[in-house]
């Protein structure tokens, strides 16, 4: 059955905005076999319910700044035609959400949606469910691991080399995302017209690699320096969607 691409904006009560510190971003994943939680948020500046989810995820990242927890935000593009074009949106992020829609057998895609370790999905502003899901995932160990080496080359590109252990090259793939640490925008049109919205950990680019390939590279978005971004890598079971390993790294 065809899945609807009409955005569903779920009403949510706004949470108190809490400032985000980036100082611990790359101190995670210190032990390869520790439990971890990757929270993927599908959001849009054009959705009136999404700022509450952005705020919830910011609070979550701060709460778990010393744990193996990483939140990342994918700005989908299907809201762009409804009054406000999200400058962070990209069709590839909508495609990733559609992948999860198939994994979870959903009838439609919606914002804000949170996916935890590729295993469960729910309303992105549901802070209680976020916390319980994170605690559950942190209590589980991982038999797989990924290590990253990220440097800026002489041409200004961000080169990523990685190694992985305990992986299944036939069933799994490596995914790498370039992440902007934070941004604040004034919204001029659409459902959030007149609001100033704040984002953390904005995915700016995503690459999928077969596990036999060990390198990739990113181009820095215009106006950003290497200090403004970092890189995260995941190992994902292509069929089940389960995230098997995760690591983030600053750029040398």
3D structure, described in words:
- This protein is 15% helix and 35% strand.
- By secondary structure, the chain is an alpha+beta fold.
- It has one domain: Immunoglobulin-like.
- A four-stranded mixed beta sheet has the order 2-1-3-4, with helices on both faces. The chain has a four-stranded antiparallel beta sheet with strand order 8-7-10-11, covered by helices on one side.
- Strand 1, helix 1 and strand 2 form a beta-alpha-beta unit.
- The N terminus is likely disordered.
In short:
The chain is of the alpha+beta class and 252 residues long. It has helices at 50-63, 91-103, 127-138; strands at 37-43, 69-75, 113-116, 120-123, 145-152, 158-165, 172-186, 196-210, 215-218, 229-237, 243-249.
Task: Summarize the helices and strands and which ones pair or pack.
Layout: E1 37-43, H1 50-63, E2 69-75, H2 91-103, E3 113-116, E4 120-123, H3 127-138, E5 145-152, E6 158-165, E7 172-186, E8 196-210, E9 215-218, E10 229-237, E11 243-249
Parallel strand pairs: 1-2
Antiparallel strand pairs: 1-3, 3-4, 5-6, 6-9, 7-8, 7-10, 10-11
Rg estimate, integer Å: 17 Å
Tell me the structural class.
alpha+beta
| Strand arrangement across the biggest beta sheet | 2-1-3-4
Count the domains.
1
Give the SSE string.
EHEHEEHEEEEEEE
CATH architecture: Sandwich
